[in-house]
Amino acid sequence: FFLWRLQAASPSRRWRDTRLLGFLSRYSLFAVPAAQTRIKALVLDFDSTLSTPTWLSRAQQWAVADNLPLFESMDEAEIIANLGGAARLATLHTLLGALEASGVVLHIVSIGRKAAIVPHLRAARLLPYFGERVWGQDCEELRSLGFVKGRLIKRIMHARGWAHAEVLFVDDSQEHLDAAAEVCRTMMVTSKAVVGGMGDAEFSALRAAAGLPPATAAEGAGVISS
After folding, report:
1. pLDDT tens-place string over residues 97-150
2. Which of 128, 105, 129, 98 is nearest to 211 (CA)?
3. Sign of CA dihedral 149, 222, 128, 63
4. Which of 127, 141, 166, 184 is the most exposed place for a label (fewest CB within 10 A)?
5. How far apart (Å, rounded) are the C-alpha atoms in residues 83 and 57?
């Protein structure tokens, strides 16, 4: 109906409706052929995306990755809790393993510190999925680009020859997503159980973006921009 109205409209009306169609195609599931393209790369934020920050009562602080001394003081139980607990960690292993097996290249781009993130990934046995593809505020690559994640993602994509529709960036910050919207597909973390972190809706959407079958019938749909 919308496309029929667009063809029949006056030139001025057609211009306004074309702009609306472009907006809907970029920010919703309406007419998004690019969203049918299987992703070749996934870029994840760390805090409140891969992790689910916990309150450490012993330190009276939230466990976030820009606090290197706190991260260095955390034991394995605290690290697992900060990733959402054993059950969520098992889900992450299943998901990341399936994505990797399907050919999706996994990355982390965070405003936290790489020196804080990497040991936690190693302790949780998640580091092999990412390898050296982890960047934080203590990395010159991100620092030289003004800490704008979209700029670093663009550089990574250029080096690999990936197109907009082939890369998905997941973050809990609208500011970071907006800065990357012209570069790649984006997805906001909406589960946000208390302090954030991807949940069933995001896990299901990531599987769909990679052309994988749902892990369970209970997972949600998620929304990815084209």
Report:
1. 999 999 999 999 999 999 999 999 999 999 999 999 999 999 999 999 999 999
2. 98
3. positive
4. 141
5. 17
